[in-house]
Amino acid sequence: MGTPRGLRNAGSSSSACRFLAAFAVLLTLPTLTAGLTRHYTFNVQMTNVTRLCVTKSIPTVNGQFPGPKLVVREGDRLVVKVHNHMNYNVSFHWHGILQLRNGWADGPSYITQCPIQGGGSYVYDFTVTGQRGTLWWHAHFSWLRVHLYGPLVILPKRGEGFPFPRPYKELPPIMFGVWLMHCHFDVHLSWGLSMAWLVNDGPLPSQKMLPPPSDLPKC
Length: 219
Ligand SMILES: *[C@@H]1O[C@H](CO)[C@@H](O)[C@H](O)[C@H]1NC(C)=O
Ligand SMILES: *[C@@H]1O[C@H](CO)[C@@H](O)[C@H](O)[C@H]1NC(C)=O
Known about the structure:
With 219 residues, the chain is mostly beta strands. It has a domain at 37-155: Immunoglobulin-like. Helices cover 11% and strands 27% of the residues. Strands 2-1-4-6 form a four-stranded mixed β-sheet. Strands 3-8-7-5 form a four-stranded mixed β-sheet, with no helix packed on it. A hairpin with a 2-residue loop joins strand 1 and strand 2 (54-61). Bound molecules: 2-acetamido-2-deoxy-beta-D-glucopyranose (NAG) (2 copies). One 2-acetamido-2-deoxy-beta-D-glucopyranose is lined by residues 89, 114-115, 117. One 2-acetamido-2-deoxy-beta-D-glucopyranose is lined by residues 46-48, 57.
């Protein structure tokens, strides 16, 4: 695929500082309506995480599980710099975001991009247009999506509202996920893509899922 487009954007400035700077601009110019550029950095790394009394080494973004919350306003440009520090390939999908003429940021491995290989980086760069509400992002390479996901909040433009009455109370996003109690996710990776068909199991014999492969590792 050649050099990923985003690599040319790589800079050394702290994204946190840039985000704070963007926030400061918002505070001092409350009537500003033009879209801002929101910068985030994803360091994808193995992290020991404990849930339900079980500690496992799983892929995380910046050591967080679920991953960090991204916040933009409608019309903003979102720039997410991904560094893959794992030995696994990965890519990221911004679920529900309309990638208008911007398919390179959509994220499905081997559909719109080759995956980011271990040690590699890629910058997802897109503008959120005509959408507001809470969506989510997730990894789009085989089973990695089980661990790598987080909320993506799109606020309305300043001075505009959501297309529903103001709620009585606002809660932070609640992420639901699965926590695999058995095995390690990496043993699934070799047959992860075929596992994806399990969700299509149907009532007819011709729609039933195939039995597990004979080389399915024992737990
Ligand atoms: C996770 O914990 C194990 C066992 O304590 C340790 O060997 C390993 O280095 C830890 N991994 C990380 C990424 O911290
Ligand atoms: C990782 O990506 C590279 C490039 O697409 C591919 O050659 C390799 O087979 C991938 N590795 C896995 C485990 O899928």
